[in-house]
């Protein structure tokens, strides 16, 4: 018996040492600061149909005049745009959330659905923008059908070589932090990321959040499930 204890003693000592020693180089999960996304605004537009230019009290709609339409129809945003005369500037309705979100880190997303023809259709997600859209972070095809992500005022621009498909649902997303922003578009059905990247830009601290959408009649762009999140 004494011989057995003599042989086991080194092993027992090792077990006691390892069970009582705290490894500072490998902190436990409770020692690592954690953050989670918290929804501060969500709109699924599930309410009564509205007149042109009215998405509810949380929104301000711009350029919804003449042949440009932005309104709630059948629980989603119905967006059309007037086709300008040759050489005239593009005119497309857009909606901005009524108040600024000043958090450095935020995530903005929206679900969009294309109609039967995507030619000349426009969909753009906006973050930290000003009301006349002279600046801000964007992902979409705001000008001449080119789908890109960029800061409106200039700087780095990433261009998607693909294009939107007809009768397809997508998710557009922008995530901002103190270094700039990341943006992506993904297929809603599969979750597959089609295009995206990160742009370093420390120039924008706060601004408006919203979307631009429209397609020439009789085509329509549909918008749903708009969400704003900030880090806890």
3D architecture notes:
The protein has 232 residues and is mainly β. It has a single domain (38-231), classed as Jelly Rolls, CATH 2.60.120.200. Helix content is 8%, strand content 43%. It contains one helix and 15 strands, in the order αβββββββββββββββ. The protein has one helix spanning 2-20, and strands at 37-43, 59-62, 69-73, 76-80, 94-97, 106-113, 122-129, 137-143, 146-151, 157-159, 169-177, 180-187, 193-200, 208-214, 221-231. Strands 1, 3, 4, 6, 11, 12, 13 and 15 form an eight-stranded antiparallel sheet that branches. It has a seven-stranded antiparallel sheet with strand order 2-5-14-7-8-9-10, with no helix packed on it. A hairpin with a 5-residue loop joins β9 and β10 (157-159). The longest helix is centred in the N-terminal third of the chain and has 19 residues, at 2-20. It starts with a helix and ends with a strand. The relative contact order is 0.22. Residues 1-33 have low confidence and may be disordered.
Offer a quick outline of the entry:
The chain has 232 residues and is mainly beta.
Provide key terms for this protein.
1 helix, disordered N terminus, 232 residues, globular, 7-stranded antiparallel sheet, mainly beta, 8% helix, Jelly Rolls, 8-stranded antiparallel sheet
Number of strands: 15
Based on CA atoms alone, the radius of gyration comes out at 25 Å
Uncertain stretches of 5 or more adjacent residues? 1-33
Number of helices: 1
How much of the residues is beta strand, in percent?
A: 35-45%
**Any idea of the CATH topology?**
Jelly Rolls
SS class? mainly beta
How much helix, percentage-wise, in residues? under 10%
* Element order: H for helix, E for strand: HEEEEEEEEEEEEEEE
In round numbers, the mean pLDDT is 84
User: Globular, elongated, flat, extended or rod-shaped: what is the shape?
Assistant: globular
């Amino acid at each position: 018996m004494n011989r057995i204890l003599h042989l086991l003693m080194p092993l027992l000592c090792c077990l006691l040492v390892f069970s009582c020693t705290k490894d500072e180089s490998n902190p436990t999960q409770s020692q690592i600061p954690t953050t989670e996304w918290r929804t501060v605004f969500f709109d699924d537009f599930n309410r009564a149909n509205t007149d042109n230019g009215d998405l509810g009290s949380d929104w301000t709609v711009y350029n919804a005049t003449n042949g440009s339409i932005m309104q709630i129809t059948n629980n989603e945003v119905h967006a059309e745009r007037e086709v300008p005369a040759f050489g005239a500037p593009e005119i497309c309705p857009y909606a901005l959330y009524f108040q600024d979100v000043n958090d450095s880190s935020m995530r903005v997303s929206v679900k969009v659905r294309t109609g039967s023809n995507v030619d000349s259709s426009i969909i753009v997600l906006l973050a930290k923008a000003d009301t006349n859209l002279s600046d801000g972070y964007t992902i979409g095809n705001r000008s001449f059908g080119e789908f890109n992500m960029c800061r409106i005022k200039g700087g780095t621009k990433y261009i998607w070589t693909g294009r939107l498909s007809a009768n397809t649902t997508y998710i557009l997303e922008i995530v901002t932090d103190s270094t700039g922003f990341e943006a992506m578009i993904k297929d809603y059905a599969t979750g597959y990321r089609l295009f995206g990247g990160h742009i370093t830009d420390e120039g924008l601290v706060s601004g408006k959040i919203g979307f631009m959408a429209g397609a020439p009649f009789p085509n329509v762009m549909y918008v749903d499930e708009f969400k704003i999140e900030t880090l806890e």
